Amino acid sequence: MKKLISILLVLIMALGTLSMTVSADTTPDFKSVDYIKADMLYVHGASAMAETQAWQHWQKLDIYRDYDDDDLRDMSVNREDGISEEYYFFLPSGADGKKAEILNTFSTDITIGDVTIPSWGFATIDYNTTDDFKAVLDGKEITFRFRKSTAEAAIYINNPDADGNGTDLLSYLSQDKENDAKATGAIVNKDGSVDNTDIKKIKGRGNTTWVKEKKPFNVTYEEAVSVDGMEQTKKLSLLANYQDSTLMRNRFLYDLGNAVGLPFASQSRFVDLYMNGEYIGAYQLTQKVDIGKKNLVKVIEDETHLNEDGTLKAEFPFLVEIDAGAGNDDYHTYSSKAKCNLTVKGPELDNDDPYYNDVLKQVQTKFDAMYTAVIQNSDNLEELVDIDSLAKLVLINELGKNWDVGISSFYLTYMADEDGNYKFFGSPCWDYDNSLGNATGVINDLNSMGVKDYEEPTGWWSIYKLNSRGGSGKTGKYTLPGYAMMNETILQRMAEIWFEDFVPAIETFNSENSTDGQLYSKDVYYNYLKGTAEMNYELGWRIHTGDWICDHTKLLNGTYNSETGTYTPDTEITKYTENEIITFDGEYSYMVDWLNTRAAWLSSEFHDAVYKTLILGDADMNETVNIKDTTAIQKALAKITTIEGDAMKCADVNADENLSIKDATNIQKYLANYELEYAIGQPIK
After folding, report:
1. Confidence (pTM)
2. CA of 57: how far to CAs of 65, 90, 125, 232, in Å?
3. Contact 552, 578 (CB under 8 A)
4. Does 551 score more than 50 pLDDT?
């Protein structure tokens, strides 16, 4: 009987599987696909014919899509003047590179070459990205062209009735950042594989970037998805990277965070975004900063602050953002110590939830204690903050000269370390489009900080950044990263981590054809970006050189000499234009050179802290040999103080690996000009 039941179960499972499998030869009923419009030509972005969510229509270029009416009046042009006569198919990287499946939704047949496509039928044609093609409709020729992306994936999101009143998805979402909608869609990876997981919610995101024409979005899938090998997650952000013409700065610094071991650094992929069959542009798909087992910060969930009986735990993990823009709708508190708002990203409670105020008080109290310890370099500093992760997060911001450092998008996760002790960890890293030589900054703010070289790859930055309250009083003047850089313990660790983790990672970036780990080499990123950037800018998005973006046409680069620890600027300025025109290639090269010059300068500044010249006999490490060094040895022998590490190398004059009165005596002889067999006063090799 059991055997019969087992056989029946197997048959039922097999039948269930068959019922869910659609033959690749099955022709979909395109009229029932709700986002497909009549009187269009569509091309399929995936190879499985039965797949219905990855179709996109041809469209015209609009070189003025990025201009408002005032811009057009200033240029004395009409908006329609920027619309191309030709149509374009913008194909994702996962589409076939030689054959295109074309769907005809016109009411009459269309002929392309010697192929006739019936009304509401489809056919396969050969294509390339260099030639013009002609579609004959009712005796009229229409020119169209193909473009193909090089991005790692494509994201299709479809809902032609987002508000229930017939408003298409993009229009509805663009009306208000708080508008949200469900959708169907497809993820098409560069290898052609397809995932048709439905979208539970899509809505707008961002602050400055939201008011731009190219909108950024947050997407929540019904189930966790993986895009081109990314860690599975439900919640993702589509970054428009509107202000970054390389489309790269966020990606590099997120991947760098992963490479140097920063906890919860977001994984990202370059993608092309399509909505309701329309190509929208090049985006960066990244793990959203959010809590939960299926999201980026897995150690925090909605109720990890509660005991099993519903009472508040004495210690619990939370995610907090230093956020100058926190508003009344945000779950936030205010640190009077740091003069900044703290938005609690998890657990995120409503004001009628139990312990709403208690959680806020806990966040404020813990943050203030940590902030004070950083300022004062307290003995219990390591008990309150993980120094390594804070140092890494500050270094990422310092390397990029991130305009917003310590003011917004600066995240800290309060959680248990490997020994079960709760403390703050610097992470996740987020929002770096105004980094790596991209932004000019605000002149009044820069003047108040005394910073005149913000755009340059040289010069310190985080240590000068004032908080959003203007910096009144002895505390709360600088941001947390600024005080971290004034803290001798953290600054020393930053220097060590720079050479231990950051320099090797940047060397990987400057290598060739490297795809090991999360950080790739610059040529790999470029190859992913080249095709998608070409499509993005050809569609009509601008390569920006406006007031907020600094001059990317030229740069004085420099190099670092590891033997001498010095930085040397080039003798000539490098230019990044082609026939005085700014191109994507020029923008990308500028960013890479700015990054490498910045890294060279930082290496020279950190050099002495890590590779300080050790002088034989300099027991007190003050870079000279005098009677104080004999005193230092005598105090150590009397166990009043200790000498260890580099100081021990200097104090052990006779190199017998033992500190003794003989070492002090030899220093005294050296000071009295005795001839000795030891090279006291000389650098230790």
Report:
1. 0.87
2. 18, 9, 16, 30
3. no
4. yes
Which DSSP string corresponds to 157-175?
EE-S-TTSSS--HHHHHHH
Do 424 and 257 form a contact (C-beta atoms < 8 A)?
A: no
HSE toward the beta carbon, residue 358, CA cutoff 13 A: 12
Helix axes 661-671, 627-637, angle to 10 degrees: 170
The torsion angles phi and psi of 278, rounded to 5 degrees, stand at -110, 135
The C-alpha angle with vertex 132 and arms to 126 and 138, in degrees rounded to 5, equals: 85
User: Would you tell me the crossing angle of helices 387-400 and 584-611 to the nearest 10 degrees?
Assistant: 140
Amino acid (1-letter code) at residue 150: T
- What is the reported pLDDT for 476? 54
Rounded CA Rg of the chain = 30
- State how far the Cα of 424 lies from the Cα of 438, in Å rounded to an integer: 30
Task: Report the pLDDT averaged over residues 648-658.
Answer: 91
Residue 149 — φ and ψ, nearest 5°? Answer: -80, 165
Three-class SS state of 407? coil
What is the spatial distance between Cα 244 and Cα 267, in angstroms, rounded to a whole number? 19
Angle at 303 between CA 414 and CA 216, to 5 degrees: 70
Residues facing residue 415 across a β-bridge: 423
C-alpha angle 203-92-233 in degrees, rounded to nearest 5: 45
Cα–Cα distances (Å) from 53 to 32, 49, 56, 342, 507, in that order, read: 12, 11, 9, 41, 41
